[in-house]
């Protein structure tokens, strides 16, 4: 079945360590997104990408980095510069954002829990 | 980016209809209205979307005000499985502000009582 796969589901990070969250989609979507969600809060946009080899910062990009070398993959690295990384991270994808595609569904992965120990 | 405003929480009794409001007073003529819902520790899932006319699907109905400055998601018979956070978001059709961003607000937490 088509969908978005995030891994790992649970990840523990030590202070000062970089970690990478994987996001893979087989929906042939051009656009991909990363969100952060803190307990009891809404989703905040970290980075997004509308095409391979291009991406833009969202509202809370500091301390994070991404790459988009392949259409189906959009990994997120949480760097040591991110001072409070403990959160639920969600990856999403959609058809590229223009014209009638604004009516198209956004698909989300199941999320990854990151905890600093 | 146009913003949406939703109540933080609502309660409903099981088997009764639920009306979840969303205000989007700065909506542009080319913004679609989307609704998603999120169960605990899961990714959001699509519920419904519309542009100008009211919409129905197997999950819910979407009622859009004539001036499009507000909309209401209607769950016709709430079940315990409908307890979730419901998000109302806007998506630009023509891309006049085509940054590709998808901005989610705080959403409405729906509690369903048996």
Please describe what this structure looks like.
The complex is a heterodimer of chains A (117) and B (114). By secondary structure, chain A is mostly beta strands. Chain A is built from no helices and 11 strands. In chain A, the strands form 2 sheets. In chain A, strands 2, 4, 5, 6, 9, 10 and 11 form a 7-stranded mixed sheet that branches. In chain A, strands 1-3-8-7 form a 4-stranded antiparallel sheet, with no helix packed on it. Chain B has 114 residues and is mostly beta strands. In chain B, 0% of the residues lie in helices and 46% in strands. Chain B is built from no helices and 9 strands. In chain B, the strands form 2 sheets. A 5-stranded mixed sheet of chain B has the order 1-9-8-3-4, with no helix packed on it. Chain B has a 4-stranded antiparallel sheet with strand order 2-7-6-5, with no helix packed on it. Chain B starts with 8 loop residues before the first strand and ends with a strand. The mean pLDDT of chain B is 88.
Summarize the structure.
The complex is a heterodimer of chains A (117) and B (114). Chain A is mostly beta strands and 117 residues long.
């Amino acid at each position: 079945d088509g969908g978005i796969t995030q891994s790992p589901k649970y990840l523990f990070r030590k202070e000062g360590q970089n970690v990478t969250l994987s996001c893979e989609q087989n929906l042939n979507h051009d656009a991909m997104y990363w969100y952060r969600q803190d307990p009891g809060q809404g989703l905040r946009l970290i980075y997004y990408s509308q095409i391979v080899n291009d991406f833009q910062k969202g509202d809370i990009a500091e301390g994070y980095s991404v790459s988009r070398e392949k259409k189906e993959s959009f990994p997120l690295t949480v760097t040591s510069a991110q001072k409070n990384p403990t959160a639920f991270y969600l990856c999403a994808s959609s058809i590229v954002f223009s014209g009638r595609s604004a009516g198209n569904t956004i698909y989300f992965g199941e999320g990854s829990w990151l905890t600093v120990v | 980016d146009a913003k949406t405003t939703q109540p933080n929480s609502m309660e409903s009794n099981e088997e009764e209809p639920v009306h979840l409001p969303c205000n989007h007073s700065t909506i542009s003529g080319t913004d679609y209205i989307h609704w998603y819902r999120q169960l605990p520790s899961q990714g959001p899932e699509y519920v419904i979307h519309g542009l100008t006319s009211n919409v129905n699907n197997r999950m819910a109905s979407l009622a859009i005000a004539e001036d499009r400055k507000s909309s209401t998601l209607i769950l016709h018979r709430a079940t315990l499985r409908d307890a979730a956070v419901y998000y109302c978001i806007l998506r630009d059709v023509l891309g006049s502000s085509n940054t590709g961003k998808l901005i989610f607000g705080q959403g409405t937490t729906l509690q369903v009582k048996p």
